[in-house]
């Protein structure tokens, strides 16, 4: 196990080209599981290659247990990497693929046999040791690739989108296997993925990347519940967060953001968010962020903002039902219990806890550092919208 720290790491491929990595700052403790997540082209695989030593950094430092390894060759970093393509030797047996790195290090044959047996048992591939990679399924090949890395017992494991070539069912199974393996070995791990479900389920810490910049770094729950900006809020969560544009109106010197649907009586089809005397909102486009599970069917006596909206689409998923309505001419997803499944055309009275809703600047994408009281149209009910 080892600590890993990245200090102001930059990567550029030449003069006149935009930096691929920009001032990356990260630190994880010994034994932690770090997820690098983001869309294709955001720089996460480049950052992984820099940690492994497959690419050099243009600036900054990479430290393992406080030792700067930025200038060391890959073989001297004591880091094992599992690639997206598995990179198995097709003419070698599973046993020889796992043992290859140990033979290069000139370990005694008895020690090699012991290590291969340990890894094969851990990954439940003992019955495959005599086969060639071409005789294995995708999931089995992935286990062998992991076994080759595990046999080295390095300080740090790196996984570069290892499950992207597997089908959906096998991805879920292998995700569980990787998490169990980490719980057993407790080795510091960095895992690259563009799949936010993998990020949420596997990581102790998550770094969300975009355009070579870390947008937010924290625990999965911190990033889910308290996203730093519009990009993070939209990328993390399935189904994704609802983003509802707000039109700011001024009445009697007070500023309001209006939520409005096309269903129900006028008093039921609108909800006003009182922005009070908050400054700098004139002419500013605002976006209200609400996660699907935070839009609830109205309960009698609940003192929460409410709005009636007509159901346009219903998607049963088994454990819950997704109902889509329109608010402010925007499609909005509600995550409901399966026994509360509505019908298309039905008017739903929806409530939300404004303390869990978020407010964003539509132009910059940043969270607004505001705590604004929320008032529903009728009856008037006051609560507090969550700011930063």
From TrEMBL:
Residues 4-236 form the ABC transporter domain. Keywords: ATP-binding, Nucleotide-binding, Transport. It comes from the Bacteria. InterPro entries: AAA+_ATPase, ABC_transporter-like_ATP-bd, ABC_transporter-like_CS, ABC_transpr_MalK-like, ABC_transpr_MalK/UgpC-like, Mo/tungstate-bd_C_term_dom, NA-bd_OB-fold, OB_MalK-like. The keyword Transport applies. GO terms for molecular function: ATP binding. Pfam families: ABC_tran (PF00005), OB_MalK (PF17912), TOBE (PF03459). PANTHER family: ABC TRANSPORTER ATP-BINDING PROTEIN (PTHR43875:SF14), MALTODEXTRIN IMPORT ATP-BINDING PROTEIN MSMX (PTHR43875). This is ABC transporter ATP-binding protein. The lineage of its organism: Bacteria, Pseudomonadati, Pseudomonadota, Gammaproteobacteria, Pseudomonadales.
